[in-house]
User: Which sequence fits this backbone?
């Protein structure tokens, strides 16, 4: 992993446009349809629309569905799409061909994988996760507890955090699976995947990584880290579209023994033999469940074309330059209002997003005022403003403009206007 | 349920076009983009493309995703789509508003529901289904067995069929859940939903209906039948597009007690509070799992517009007229080749599809020859040719033409040509 070049000490907007001019990824912005006048810093929640997507989906609708009809299951390769697109995601996460397959939602995929993982250590009765994990991961682990637990042998869910108990505190001979999200959804803190995996393996447990905020954001090397299972989402940094399908990764060495939670016909060894008994397909294919939602799959397919040419080290360099620039500008310009950077300043511990506490202001109201002025981030209860920096389409000038608008909102106190007051929440 | 008017005894193509001229649903064909020269009799596998779908999906991509970006979760109502569209499916299946919600695939939804159902009778240890059920239902029940079973209290899966043991044979105090598909995917045989539900309830068990081949094909009255749970698919007779989302129905009386298999954040009572503990949402919403695949949802939304105006009794009348016409023509014209109608001739026991055995010919090869000549049905191993009759866009002349082509293929023995020989399978 390369180190980002330092941001110059005296920064003005001209510095930012100069950085853009020198940015080898700057041209990728033209691959996206971003609305005029918007600084989009929420690609960590929903990625922007690639220019090629609409036409591709339209072709799938008109030609593959409308004209090909049922024949497209074979002729257009519909049946193997989840495997084919899995193979295209593989290089982005340090996986091999045949190790990745599309799922439904990340929640469903985590369930599918966590059950399989826990079954590899049936004698152990503790599942570990992190209190600050994205909540659905914790909810799904409740399902796993309920379904794999028995009255005589209950399964326990133990949550760790920095205040303790920590991961080191709870790891022991009773731990079956550890489920952690590589880059935290709120703080942007990134785990050392190899080191944590080593620690979990030293305790004899299975490591499941949630890559929702990593894939397409930072280089990931699952096989290099020796991890066991992973799941992730494609609608954030991969720009697959709203609710585009999740993916599942199963290390090759576990594939033969792994029994997925839900044994569906698309995971069957011979789905068109219509046998009465389930027989798992070889490899990761057995983690498929039912018929894939092919229009959402089509949008993902178009978005993956962009990734053929992306150098992940360049991507990471730019990501760190953007977040470092943002942190630096926040420090230098927003101190008067007590704005606090929550995300780690150490670059190796940071994903591609930065979270702020709004200090004297109400972060929710500040975010609404930002969005109204075209700077789109989001708010996560109870008090975090999140800003995602998608290196493919966010520019250094965007970072400058976002902080300038933020400063204006704080200095004018426009955020106090009643129309910005909390009423709902943005996903 | 109304009785179909008899098909005239002496049928020729003019009779069929006259029936089309008198058909009150004939105009609905114009709502679909069917390719020229195709007789599409596979809407029971993948429904045809509604004319309005492409533009609607395009608008969702360009405006809601491209321009609205993350704001569309609130502004475009993305978050509640699975509930809103559930409410629009409800009238088609005799359900009330608030009883239906979209899922991922039907396999995933059956798992979600079958676990909940079995938990309502935890002391009982037998799950019942039908040997001839669509295989994924049987595979999913293996998952339920594995996950709800315990070494000391295993769960048994018992399969019934007409040869025995029959449903009546196995129903007893040990049966927790019965899972049956209302209209059989191969034979088109339809159960008497009210009668079977009554029988299952008399044994104290829970009734789960799979409506994949019923919804949009025949009138369904879940509440009238007093059923407990149901799932179904939207890409067949509802024309939602390839892999469009499944749906889940939970009778209002069970909603408070039902605990879904997978407890995901979209089923949480307060998903944006980001609590560490799962708390089920009120009502059927708790059966939601993760982020819905919104482009596939959008296509479904467009297809549901068509159903606002459809009179289900008229639909059933036409469906029976089409299948009766097909059966009658097969009987009168294809007897020389030993072609056999597998689907029940009694209209009350028939869905909207007809299955044939090809007699002296190889059904697989015959179907390939049919498809090559623009008559699209499908083949189901080991020996069935399936023909689906979607009343919204199949005409009586289509039925005539299909049988005429079939007769030609059999009489010329063109099906014996090597290019039609079995190599793969069509979904």
Assistant:
């Amino acid at each position: 992993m390369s180190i980002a070049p330092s941001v110059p000490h005296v920064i003005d907007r001209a510095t930012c446009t100069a950085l853009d001019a020198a940015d080898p990824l700057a041209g990728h912005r033209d691959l996206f349809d971003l609305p005029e006048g918007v600084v989009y810093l929420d690609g960590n929640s929903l990625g922007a629309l690639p220019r090629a997507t609409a036409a591709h989906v339209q072709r799938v609708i008109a030609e593959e569905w409308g004209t090909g009809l049922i024949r497209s299951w074979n002729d257009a390769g519909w049946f193997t799409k989840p495997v084919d697109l899995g193979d295209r995601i593989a290089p982005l996460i340090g996986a091999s061909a045949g190790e990745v397959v599309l799922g439904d939602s990340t929640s469903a995929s985590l369930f599918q994988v966590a059950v399989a993982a826990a079954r590899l250590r049936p004698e152990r009765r503790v599942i570990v996760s992190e209190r600050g994990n994205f909540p659905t991961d914790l909810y799904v682990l409740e399902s796993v507890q309920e379904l794999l637990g028995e009255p005589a042998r209950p399964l326990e869910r133990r949550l760790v955090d920095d205040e303790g108990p920590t991961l080191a505190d709870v790891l022991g001979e009773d731990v079956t699976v550890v489920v952690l999200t590589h880059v935290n959804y709120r703080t942007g803190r990134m785990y050392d995947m190899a080191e944590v995996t080593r620690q979990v393996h030293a305790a004899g447990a299975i490591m499941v990584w949630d890559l929702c905020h990593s894939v397409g954001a930072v280089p990931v090397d699952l096989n290099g880290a020796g991890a066991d299972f992973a799941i992730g989402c494609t609608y954030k940094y991969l720009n697959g579209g709203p609710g585009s399908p999740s993916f599942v990764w199963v290390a090759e060495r576990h594939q033969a023994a792994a029994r997925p939670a839900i044994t569906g016909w698309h995971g069957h060894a011979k789905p068109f033999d219509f046998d009465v008994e389930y027989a798992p397909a070889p490899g990761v294919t057995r983690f498929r469940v039912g018929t894939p939602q092919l229009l959402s799959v089509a949008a993902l397919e178009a978005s993956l074309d962009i990734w053929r040419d992306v150098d992940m080290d360049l991507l990471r360099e730019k990501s760190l330059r953007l977040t470092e620039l943002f942190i630096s500008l926040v420090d230098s310009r927003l101190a008067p209002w007590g704005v606090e950077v929550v995300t780690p300043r150490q670059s190796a511990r940071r994903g591609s997003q930065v979270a702020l506490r709004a200090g004297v202001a109400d972060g929710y109201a500040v975010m609404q005022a930002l969005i109204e002025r075209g700077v789109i981030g989001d708010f996560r209860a109870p008090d975090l403003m999140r800003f995602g920096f998608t290196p493919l389409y966010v520019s250094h000038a965007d970072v400058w403009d976002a902080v300038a608008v933020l400063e204006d909102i704080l200095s004018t106190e426009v955020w106090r206007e009643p129309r910005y007051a909390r009423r709902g929440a943005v996903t």
Summary: The first strand of chain B starts at residue 39 and ends at 40.
